Amino acid sequence: MEEVLAGMAAFLGIVLVITLVVVVITIIANWKLFEKAGEPGWSAIIPFYNSYQMAKIGTGDEKLCWTFVGLSIADTVLGNIKSDNGAFKAIALLVSLALLVISCYVCYKYTQSFGQSTGMCILAIFFAPIIYMIMAFSSSTE
Known about the structure:
Layout: H1 2-36, H2 49-58, H3 62-79, H4 86-112, H5 118-126, H6 128-136
Helix pairs in contact: 1-6, 2-3, 2-4, 3-4, 4-5, 5-6
């Protein structure tokens, strides 16, 4: 039994380290990209405000920015409420799906706003931290 617990602890430790590395890479990359776009770099570390900045840089549409932030907050709140109500679960699912669609669109437009190709924009949807880091330190990124 102790071996199982030790294995689980080791696995969770590895997952935690990988997660922290990805978060740090994303913050560094977005900081640099925000500065390239003429926005304050520190906004990359503020939750929800960084989402607003990404949407603003990518789309320039104020309504979409607020929709993106609102759905992000709603998804966070609804995801933390435990309920057996079927209607509540359906609403939470719809909010999550709407956020997924808008997130993909914002990610695509954000990458495209820095002069990247369509292929790079699609890759950013799936591998955002890596692509953002490449863009942040590339001299060809406008």
